[in-house]
Design brief:
Layout: H1 3-24, H2 29-55
Helix pairs in contact: 1-2
């Protein structure tokens, strides 16, 4: 998965989590599970971003 794909997945998961939180509450098991999935996606994104910067320091896609 590349950075653009992860950004899209993060955006979709964030929207899903917000909707769940508004519909079922922030302490609902489904909302918490969705939040954890979003955390995982964000961690993967950060790892890939760092890896991209290490292997291709001239990459203009994202700056720190």
């Amino acid at each position: 998965m590349n950075l653009a794909d992860l950004e899209k997945a993060i955006s979709q998961k964030r929207e899903e989590m917000i909707k769940l939180g508004m519909d079922k509450g922030l302490s609902c098991h489904e909302t918490i599970k969705c939040s954890q999935e979003l955390d995982r996606l964000l961690n993967v994104y950060d790892d890939l971003l760092i890896e991209t910067k290490i292997t291709n320091p001239m990459d203009q896609y994202h700056d720190f």
